[in-house]
Design brief:
Elements: H1 8-44, H2 62-84
């Protein structure tokens, strides 16, 4: 500012305008989040989409259990290697 005081009514109008703009952007962002969430859930339900695990409400299948066990084995090997090395 250049040292002059702004008119309180002008300042209030500006702040109200800013608040309205932020509210609109917040609503747009909320809509975008909902769209992305729906897309992700759709992809999780499609077995052809790599990297999209099934929803947790569905129990893990044998393939993912084997993958989890292999991962746990690798982690144990890494810890053992660090301790010995």
């Amino acid at each position: 500012m250049d040292g002059e005081r702004e008119n309180p009514e002008e300042l209030a109008d500006q702040l109200e305008h800013d608040a309205d703009r932020m509210q609109q952007r917040s609503e747009e962002l909320g809509e975008k989040v909902a769209e992305v969430r729906q897309d992700w859930e759709r992809k999780r339900g499609d077995q052809g989409v790599p990297g999209a695990p099934p929803p947790e409400s569905e129990g893990p299948d044998e393939a993912s259990e084997e993958g989890n066990n292999a991962s746990a084995d690798r982690e144990a090997d890494d810890v053992a290697a660090e301790e010995s090395g």
